[in-house]
Amino acid sequence: MAKVSAYYSTNPSDPDVYHDQDNCPSGQQIPSYNRASGTNGYPKCKHCADM
Ligand SMILES: [Zn+2]
Questions:
Q1: Dist. CA 39 → ligand 1 center (Å)
Q2: How far is the CA of 29 from the centre of ligand 1 (A)?
Q3: Confidence class of residue 51 from pLDDT cuts 50, 70 and 90?
Q4: How far is residue 47's CA from residue 16's CA, in Å, rounded to a whole number?
Q5: What's the pLDDT score for residue 4?
Q6: pLDDT per residue over 10-45, tens digit each?
Q7: Burial of 17 (0-12, 13-18, 19+ CB in 10 A)
Q8: SS (HEC) of the chain
Q9: Is residue 1 scored above 90 in pLDDT?
Q10: What separation in Å is there between the alpha carbon of 28 and the centre of ligand 1?
Q11: β-pairing, 3-9 with 35-37?
């Protein structure tokens, strides 16, 4: 696993969380066109927090 810059999904149907692991199973499902840098003020995704 690798820590990366915070990113989140801009898709309104996705959970309001951000990710900071490149192999997060939730984060990997975000297509590049929905992926934005930063946290957007969201809490950290549970998968990323557990890693
Ligand atoms: Zn995550």
A1: 11
A2: 10
A3: confident
A4: 13
A5: 96
A6: 999 999 999 999 999 999 999 999 999 999 999 999
A7: buried
A8: CCEEEEEEECCCCCCCCEEEECCCCCHHHCCHHHEEECCCCCCECHHHHHC
A9: no
A10: 8
A11: antiparallel
Q: How far, in Å, is the centroid of ligand 1 from the Cα of 44? A: 7
Give, in order, the Cα–Cα distances in Å from 40 to each of 1, 17, 19, 30: 23, 8, 11, 15
Report how far ligand 1's centroid is from the alpha carbon of 13 (Å): 15
CA-CA distances (angstroms) from residue 38 to 13, 28, 35, 41?
A: 18, 16, 10, 8
